[in-house]
Amino acid sequence: MEIKKRQSGESVILDIEGNIDLHSSPEVRRFILDALRDCGPRLLLNLTGVRYIDSSGVASLVEGLKLARDRNRTLVLFGLSTLARQVLELSRLTRFFEIYADEAAALAGAPPAGGQAR
């Protein structure tokens, strides 16, 4: 698992590489929650390097979404693999997250590729 934090305008982007599973989800959760404490209005999660997410990984994303909403911020996902998207669709969570195909669309706030714009 590798996570890098970077800034693009007012948005903070976390580039996540590796599977988000029982072993790595505590680290992912910590990075997301820490970034939400320090970021501006939007936190973008770059999931292009993530091929697999299990239920503990989904729980980390949901906890991040809840904290983002509590702090009046937006948590955005982009670059989901087919399998990662299927996990979110099966758990019916795509309607709660802003999900974009790529970073450019996520930064522009273009119509999402699934999920809902907030």
Describe the structure in your own words.
37% of the residues are buried. The chain is globular, with a radius of gyration of 12 Å. It has four helices and five strands; from the N terminus they run E-E-H-E-H-E-H-E-H. The chain has a five-stranded mixed sheet. Helix content is 38%, strand content 25%. The longest helix has 16 residues. The chain starts with a strand and ends in a 10-residue tail after the last helix. It has a single domain, classed as Transcription Regulator spoIIAA (2-Layer Sandwich), CATH 3.30.750. By secondary structure, it is an alpha/beta fold.
CATH architecture: 2-Layer Sandwich
Strand order of the largest sheet: 1-2-3-4-5
Please tally the β strands and state the result: 5
User: What is the H-and-E element order?
Assistant: EEHEHEHEH
* First and last CA, distance: 29 Å
Question: What is the fourth-level CATH superfamily?
Answer: STAS domain
Strand content: 25-35%
CATH class: Alpha Beta
Number of helical regions: 4
Total domain modules = 1
